[in-house]
Amino acid sequence: MTHGPVPWLPAPLASLASRFYLWELHRRNAMLDRGKGVTTLDIPVISIGNLSVGGTGKTPLVEHIARTLASSGAHPAIAMRGYRASHGLSDEAREYALALQDVPTLVNPDRISAIRAELQRRARHNLPTLTCIILDDGFQHRKLARNLDIVLIDATRSPFNDHPLPRGWLREPVQSLRRAHAVIITRADLAPDAASAIQNHLSTIAPGIPIATVAYEWSSLDIAHNAESRSEPLSWLKGKRLLPCAAIGNPNAFLQQVEAHADSPLLQSLFIRDHDPYAPHTIDSLISIARDAHADAIITTRKDWTKLSRVSPSRWPCPIARPVLQVRWLSGADTLQGLITKAITP
């Protein structure tokens, strides 16, 4: 899939601006390669990031790794910048707070200071010491040294068909993958041929780099209706008039999964920009669309639900369903687990 130029710039201007962007990126990376301005903490750091702007399925994988670490006896924390944060929390931070109640999430553009402050706070209050940090969206945050650098590539949005900002949607050129310690290809089940092509590209650009592939499967549904919440099997979607709604980086993958679990034509979809705050007029529009279309349910993501849940339940004309995701490793699980264990082992 080719994403094309960033829409707010004409193609010739975008190409010229992209050259300046790459020049500055090269200058910055050369400085960081020499270790200038890089901080090394006394605690292992695992970075999980990507090359692209927009969704690669990072949040469910961060959660999965955090749970795996915690279940093995480690005490991880997630450190993140908090893009478009409001009231101190970003969309992803709210998701982590709901899903990982025993794993602290540190939200601060200055992630190094946030980690140090949390370590000091725990020491003062005799709380369990953190044993590792998961750096959310950390591939470009090179001022913090890491023990393991994992990069995610979405099989449905190959970076090898894209260009650096602002000509395309890449934060860095694909050659930057050479500094990664491992690559995980997400949503490989939705685009198996593309996933295979990505692996072939990686073998050329970064020979020998460990590669894993994963699928994000829907295991069940959380249903909100009339101020009540309940769990339902995926079969609950059958025969219902569904209105998909999402403000995520890659809505096509979400829509593809909705279509796979529904047996009726979908109603009009409402897909808006990533991290949209769902202003009152957007909520009004969603309610009107659902009411006018006689929707049996609005289906959305957990990320969106962190904001939609603020609306009074009495306003919704139908239930709101959101899938519960689980990570299924297709290949490379043992290799990745070995790298993670090695990274956090003193």
What features would you describe in this structure?
Strands 1, 2, 3, 4, 5, 6, 7, 8, 9, 10, 11 and 12 form a 12-stranded mixed beta sheet that branches. Helix 3 (91-99) links the parallel strand 2 (76-80) and strand 3. The protein has 2 domains: 11-215 and 328-344, 3-Layer(aba) Sandwich (Rossmann fold); 219-325. Residues 1-5 have low confidence and may be disordered. The protein is globular, with a radius of gyration of 21 Å. The chain has helices at 11-33, 58-71, 91-99, 111-124, 192-205, 251-261, 280-292, 302-308, 333-344, and strands at residues 45-50, 76-80, 105-107, 132-136, 148-154, 182-186, 211-225, 228-232, 242-246, 270-271, 297-299, 320-331. It is of the alpha/beta class. The chain contains 9 helices and 12 strands.
Which features would summarize this protein structure in a list?
346 residues; alpha/beta; Rossmann fold; 2 domains; 12-stranded mixed beta sheet
Q: How would you sum up this structure in a few lines?
A:
The protein is α/β, with parallel strands linked by helices.
